[in-house]
Amino acid sequence: MEVVNALGRRKSAIARVFVSEGTGKITINKRDLAQYFPSTILQYVVKQPLNKLEVAEKYDIKVNLCGGGFTGQSQALRLAIARALVKINPEDKKTLRAEGFMTRDPREVERKKPGRPKARRRFQFSKR
């Protein structure tokens, strides 16, 4: 099997994934998964599509992650892994879509507007 690549985004995080046959090793920015995401919850989020299809020990995954925070990065990585698995086996798309792993979450941070302290918050009104 050749190397399959895919892209995942969430908020301002971008994950580029390269999947090849192997033993289930996930390397993120030349660091191990457990070292990059010390939280077990984030590790679980990353492995969700692999565990759903029961192929966690079948593929080696190399990842380039940039931008955003750790939650956005983990969810971007989940989307990228799901897209790569669909490229490998298109029959898996229905299963992954039912779990919501194929949907790109479009929510982004709203920009700050002039004359306001935040995007929508107004300065406190003072009558006198």
UniProtKB/TrEMBL annotation:
InterPro entries: Ribosomal_Su5_D2-typ_SF, Ribosomal_uS9, Ribosomal_uS9_bac/plastid, Ribosomal_uS9_CS, Ribsml_uS5_D2-typ_fold_subgr
GO cellular component term of the entry, any: ribosome
Comp. bias regions, Basic and acidic residues: 101-112
Bias type Basic residues, positions: 113-128
Residue ranges of the region described as Disordered: 101-128
A Pfam family per the record: Ribosomal_S9
Domain of life: Bacteria
This protein's UniProt keywords: Ribonucleoprotein, Ribosomal protein
Keyword Transcription assigned: no
Family stated for the protein in its record: Belongs to the universal ribosomal protein uS9 family.
HAMAP family listed in its UniProt record: Ribosomal_uS9_B (MF_00532_B)
UniProt-listed PANTHER family: RIBOSOMAL PROTEIN S9, SMALL RIBOSOMAL SUBUNIT PROTEIN US9M
Classification via NCBIfam families: PRK00132.1
Protein name (record): Small ribosomal subunit protein uS9
Organism, as annotated: Phocaeicola acetigenes
